[in-house]
Amino acid sequence: MNIDAIDGLYVGGQWRAAADGRTFTVFDPATEKPVREVAAAGARDAATAVRVARESFDGWSATPPRQRAEVLRAAFTAMHENAPDLARLITLENGKAYRDALAEVSYAAEFFRWFAEEAVRIGSAFGDAPQGGFRHLVRRHPAGVAAFVTPWNFPAAMATRKIAPALAAGCPVVLKPAPDTPLTALAVAALLTEAGLPDGVCNVLPTDRAAEVAGRWLRDERVRKFSFTGSTATGRILLKQAADNVVNVTMELGGNAPFVVRADADLDAAVRGALDAKMRGGGEVCIAANRFYVHHTVAAEFTARLGEAMSSIHIGPGMDDGVGLGPMVNAAAVDRIDRLVTDAVRRGARVAARGPKPDGPGWFYPATVLADVPDDAELMHTEVFGPVAPVTTFDDEDDLVRRANDTTYGLAAYVYSADLAAALRLADRLETGMVGVNRGLISDPAAPFGGVKQSGLGREGGREGIEAFLETKYVAVDWP
Ligand code: ADP
User: Fold this and answer.
1) Is 400 in the pocket of ligand 1 (CB under 6 A)?
2) To bridge 76 with a disulfide, which of 13, 113, 289, 308 should be the other Cys (CB 3.0-4.6 Å)?
3) What is the pTM assigned to this prediction?
4) What is the 270 CA–ligand 1 centroid distance (Å)?
5) Residue 5 has what pLDDT?
6) Confidence band for 3, pLDDT divided at 50, 70 and 90
7) Going from the N-terminus, what domains does the chain have, and what CATH number goes with each?
8) Angle at which helices 183-194 and 65-81 cross, to 10°
9) Cβ 442 vs Cβ 434: under 8 Å
10) Is 40 touching ligand 1 by the criterion CB < 6 Å?
């Protein structure tokens, strides 16, 4: 794959300029310098992309599932073959450590493999009417053109998590990546062409005019599925817009994951899990551990060990050797984290550990562990989205559950305990779509990812992931 070939909007298998010639700039978070000028799609480009996608629908949806699966499988292989280039691109525009970027490429590729395997198992059903006289034929059809808006924290995986099931189901797609990280999604689309995907089935429109492009898609009757990953605030706006055309939506929104350490937990395992759940991608992860509830008998020990582990992670430009913590995605992200930490300290939190911050340019935020964080600190209720671990203690489990569930979010939670039955009981009581039990890494393309409450609607991955792109058609057959 030639990364330098990435040049503009990717529509109909071709690189194009925006209809009005507008461009925007992509920056390297490690240097704060511009790295690429990219075409900025507007409403006209959004409409063109939907037309192109719709024109490819009949052909792609009629392509036998086995053949669709083979394209997806080839895309899986192509992503692995191009892993170093793709990971470099992710680090360049997102900032994350190269080792995290490589892990992301592998995770992202896995969606192609998983949904290649699902494409041939869509199936249909046949039944007899209970009262006799006729039969039920229940078919599964691809929904139609699917439109996606994705965030910057996983530039490859958030694209493939949506693209792969849509293509497996027979739906063509249009995708708008985040303005901070448009290059990786463009590279993925070009790789799909190399893997044999017909032109027009996967179209990617970078832009800094998000509302214009997404708004155009949600007003277009040809768009039959909309899937968004991003903040709850933006999700709410898009959900309202989707209501006008009654567009079927999937929403993966914000989280506020509690990380619970019971008194009987293996503390070494809990610290390792905490690092996985907190520090992957610099903490810019929607399922990142956001608040640590540690039993008061082990809190001092856990906090000290976590502080030691977090502050010894090597911070620096993501491409440098040994770096485990790169810069945040942009200057606004650093300001936001800083404001949340300042608020917590003002309300009585103590800085238990703080890692170094490199000299020179780059949007860096040092790994930070806060102890004695009061429940009313803002960061206990908002996504921190950075390398900050606020620790508080608990005594009684009922009180813990009440505090952990006292949030409008419900994406993920983590529980550490040597008593599996107790951990599973606790997992049942936490109001979230996902729980890690003695595990800090929970994402798996073969499992349903998603949240409850204001963390989202629907699930991606797993068996559920492809369902979002299928419509059910029931045919009543007169057959005595
Ligand atoms: P974050 O705060 O993490 O950047 P956002 O929800 O703002 O989360 O961004 C996620 C995605 O939503 C990005 O692709 C962004 O461009 C897009 N986006 C932001 N605002 C809007 C909007 N009003 N309409 C459509 N898309 C939007």
Assistant:
1) no
2) 113
3) 0.98
4) 33
5) 85
6) confident
7) 9-253+455-475 (3.40.605.10), 257-437 (3.40.309.10)
8) 120
9) yes
10) no
Catalytic residue among 104, 252, 460, 467: 252
- 277 φ/ψ sector (left φ>0, alpha ψ -120 to 50, else beta): alpha
Looking up tokens 């009629």 gives: 62
237 ligand 1 Cβ < 6 A: yes
What digits encode the pLDDT tens for the residues 375-432?
Answer: 999 999 999 999 999 999 999 999 999 999 999 999 999 999 999 999 999 999 999 9
The span from the CA of 271 to the CA of 313, in Å, is 13
Pairing, β 470-478 against β 289-295 = unpaired
Is 252 a known active-site residue?
A: yes
Torsional sign, CA 429, 387, 278, 300? negative
The CA distance from 434 to 360, in Å, is 39
Q: How do 23-28 and 33-39 pair as beta strands?
A: antiparallel
- Name the residue of 234, 241, 284, 335 whose CB sits within 8 Å of the most ligand 1 atoms, as the mutation to test its pocket: 234
Q: Is 382 in the pocket of ligand 1 (CB under 6 A)?
A: no
Predicted confidence (pLDDT) per residue in 250-294, tens digit: 999 999 999 999 999 999 999 999 999 999 999 999 999 999 999
Can you tell me the distance from the alpha carbon of 425 to that of 396, in angstroms, rounded to the nearest whole number?
14
214 lines ligand 1 (CB under 6 A): yes
Atom number, ligand 1, closest to the C-alpha of residue 237: 23
- Secondary structure (3-state) at 132: coil
Q: Where are the alpha helices (DSSP H) in 393-444?
A: 397-404, 420-429
Separation of CA 230 and ligand 1 centre (Å): 6
3-state secondary structure (DSSP) of residue 304: helix
| Alpha-carbon separation of residue 418 from 262, 264, 357, 434, 449 (angstroms) | 8, 6, 36, 20, 25
371 Cβ contact list (under 8 Å, min separation 6): 299, 303, 349, 350, 352, 391
Span from the CA of 224 to the centroid of ligand 1 (angstroms): 20
